[in-house]
Amino acid sequence: MNNVSKVKLLKLSVMVALALSATANANVTDKDISNDQMTTDDVVSYGLGLRGQRYSPLTMINDKTVSELRPVWGFSLGGEKQRGQESQPLVKDGVMYITGSYSRVYAIDAMTGDELWQYDARLPDGIMPCCDVINRGVALYDNLVIFATLDSKLVALNKDTGKVVWKKKVEDYKAGYSITAAPIVVKGKVITGVAGGEFGIVGKVRAYDALTGSIVWERPTVEGHMGYVWENGKKIEAGISGGAPGKTWPGDLWKSGGAAPWLGGTYDKDVDLLFFGTGNPAPWNSHLRPGDNYFSSSRLAINPDNGKIVWHFQTTPHDGWDYDGVNELVSFDYKVNGKTIKAAATADRNGFFYVLNRENGDFIRGFPFVDKITWAKGLDDKGRPIFDDANRPGNPASSKDGKKGSTVVSAPSFLGGKNWMPMAYSKDTELFYVPSNEWEMSIWNEPTAYKKGAAYLGAGFTIKAINDDYIGVLRAIDPKTGKEVWRYKNYAPLWGGVLTTAGNLVFMGNPEGYLMAFDAKTGEIKYKFNTGSGVIGSPITWTMGGEQYISVLSGWGGAVPLWGGEVAKRVKNFNQGGMVWTFKLPK
Amino acid sequence: MLKSKQWLGLILAAITASSASARSYDDIIESNSIIISVYRDFKPFSSLDKQGHPQGIDIDIAQAIADKLKVKLSFQWMTADESVEDDLRNNLWKGHSLQRKIADLMLRVPYDRQYTQLRDDIGERVHDRVHMFAPYHTESWQIIFNSQKIEKIETMALFQYHSIGVEIDTVPDFYLTSAFNGRMRNHTHHFPTVELAIAAMKFSQVDAVMGLRSQVTASQWMLSDQFKLAKNAFPTLGKQQWDIGMAVKDEYRQLGYAVGDIIGQLVKSGKIKSIFTKHHTFYQQPQYYSDE
């Protein structure tokens, strides 16, 4: 561990923070997290509130004043490790906590941009994270800053010193596991999923005591695996996910079914449920595993006290397109004829937007949110896709002549109509702001393939833009009607999160490097600032000393530059970086 | 123990290797050291023994190359990525984003003209950054079975009735779970490695195992006589055998030619075969050397 502690600066910052706020330097409580969306002087959870709405009631920066926005400080993440920066900052008592690429954590004086401490996780040789060395942020609880590492550990640091308080191995990185998501804290427990695109893993959601790191429960996300709870240090069986093995899987493939909940989850206290999405099933070749393959490419509602699966909704049964079902499920309420509907919405990789009843997982409605979907003809009245069998990728094992199989074109591409980047919901406009991409993929069987010195049957693929002039589309979507109210088109694919505020604004960054502010009602661009490298992080806003601040990380990377073909051409000249930019209005 | 001067040499070598370019033949001779990439935990080819010493077929071949070049040998251990294409990028011409270390030579690379000439979707050669050469053995698939459970294996039809273990995400896995309309699927058991599949067979959890011939034969000598190698065909399997060679970065072909000559001598002198025999592994000489 390389822990750079700057005690003098820290003391200074504490004094500044004390001067600013009466509640300065208090520890983060469950109540703070629970009320995060409405308390504007801090951001203590991923999603600006555990529902993940990414909505702030702040109005000082608004559609009239935003054009005056000025950067007040920039902070470089330093080193040569300038890879994708997908982190969402948290702010508490005048201190900002961010993660950087390569499992690094920084505490920064939110007023000045001075570094207070830095923690670098020592990563072992030979880890192979699938899609860049990114991290999406920390969780705060009590006096702890908690984050997860690329080698699949949870680490809790003292918020004032950056020293390790506890550290837990969540899974074995050697078996292909990794963690990149920001953990969340619900009722005193840190909840995390695991990543691992490699074949052979079993997805799990785990809860740990936030203060001590002791495990509380574990819930596998693949049908047939036993869940556990720990009581007084004893591991107790807590029921098999899905009741029994092999109901929706052939042979013993359930033993290694994938379904990694790698993007973390959200929580809604009204129904007291966690919502986690799950990744695609393994193996990738769907012809090997006829069946729905529970609970891959699904949303799971999980009891936060014991890990029990309360309901599930599968967006892509028998996934053959690598449409991970991990995208965030955002809780929101709306009224129909005076009656409040407790809903939740998600914009799936597969191109459909789903509105569910969050109490029981019932399908309310679904509709395409991208312009082109070829893999399914639509959704039935239960929300199940109506497959277009002609557009399912072929079986590589059936190519006998050693030649490429026929090419299937599928839209969206496996990077999804929307990928990991979180959308936002405004209770003022009652619209979702969805960062989406219009792209398709060609997939063919590739018999001339090798893996670890052995012949292999691979699938070749390439991702193509559907339109010449744009891939990215920020959409304002009405969840009650499916109507798109406005759209902003972006040449490069969008890969950063969205923030909306009561100031009639929507904030989002793009890979070209701009932080942009849009009129929430019309989509008109009200402000843009070039941060110097692609923005794939999620912006936040808060108040300090009576002023409203906006912050976002800049640093191009993530999964997009890793894929070849035409899309790579669009982004290959974007420079890498690693900066936090913070903005406010002039006094 | 290495003397400090030699340590310095190694450190310098590592610095040179990690810079944008890998190293030329002249650099390697001058620095008196070569870095050779081998897979981590991959018996019988390359792994660490209980004392932490490198062991295996590829380790011995790497040592033989270093001896002939009269340079000191160090290893770069590879964690296998999703395909050899990724491994070539991570270890030979670009380096992995986490370490950015590049080796001079990588072993266990297919020697396959179709693979070398592979083009991507926009018509560019996929492997234009590397030079693949020097096949040193021919690899294939092999079934081993428990003769107390199965008398003999004439055809794959048996596995509609008998259980068989495979390593996950390999051609045997795809073959057994999809060939003949999936009729063998329910008798296919998946394991993280061939080694674990064979251990399961030993304890009668499966009746047979299909895997890489080198791995299967290398395990057989430790088993009792009741475990036998099958001689069946694999209808509809596609590629039944392939050659394994090595690769250097494209601009260092001179190194490739020097190592290619060494391997040619080692194959013809029977040295390579003796290395396989030492590790109890079946050896098949590549066709490449038969015509001369």
Keywords:
A: 587 residues; mainly beta; Methanol Dehydrogenase, Chain A; six-stranded antiparallel sheet; globular; B: 292 residues; alpha/beta; D-Maltodextrin-Binding Protein, domain 2; nine-stranded mixed sheet; two-stranded antiparallel ribbon
If you had to describe this structure to a student in words, what would you say it looks like?
The complex is a heterodimer of chains A (587) and B (292). With 587 residues, chain A is mainly beta. Chain A has one domain: Quinoprotein alcohol dehydrogenase-like superfamily (Methanol Dehydrogenase, Chain A), CATH 2.140.10. In chain A, the strands form ten sheets. Chain A has a six-stranded antiparallel sheet. A five-stranded antiparallel sheet of chain A has the order 1-7-6-5-4. Chain B has two domains: 4-138 and 243-289, 3-Layer(aba) Sandwich (D-Maltodextrin-Binding Protein, domain 2), CATH 3.40.190.10; 140-229, Periplasmic binding protein-like II (D-Maltodextrin-Binding Protein, domain 2), CATH 3.40.190.10. Helices cover 35% and strands 23% of the residues of chain B. Chain B contains ten helices and eleven strands. In chain B, the strands form two sheets. In chain B, strands 1, 4, 5, 6, 7, 8, 9, 10 and 11 form a nine-stranded mixed sheet that branches. In chain B, helix 3 packs across helix 9. Chain B starts with a helix and ends in a 14-residue tail after the last helix. Chains A and B meet through strand 31 and strand 32 of A and helix 4, strand 5, helix 6 and strand 8 of B.
What's the gist of this structure?
With 587 residues, chain A is mostly beta strands.
Distance between the termini of chain A: 41 Å
Shape-level CATH architecture of the largest domain in chain B: 3-Layer(aba) Sandwich
Oligomer: heterodimer
Query: Largest sheet of chain A, described in full?
Result: 6 strands, antiparallel
Gap from first CA to last CA of chain B? 43 Å
What's the number of extended β-strand segments of chain B?
11
Strand content range of chain B: 15-25%
Query: What top-tier CATH class of chain A fits best?
Result: Mainly Beta
List unreliable stretches of 5+ residues of chain A: 1-10, 14-24
Beta-strand percent range of chain A: 35-45%
State the strand order across the main sheet of chain A.
Answer: 12-13-14-15-16-17
Mind telling me the C-alpha Rg of chain A?
A: 23 Å
Show unreliable segments of chain B: 1-21
Q: Which fold name corresponds to the CATH topology of chain A?
A: Methanol Dehydrogenase, Chain A
Number of strands of chain A: 41
Structural class of chain B: alpha/beta
CATH architecture of chain A: 8 Propeller
Report helical residue fraction of chain B. 25-40%
* Count of structural domains of chain B: 2
CATH topology of the largest domain in chain B: D-Maltodextrin-Binding Protein, domain 2
Mean pLDDT of chain A: 92
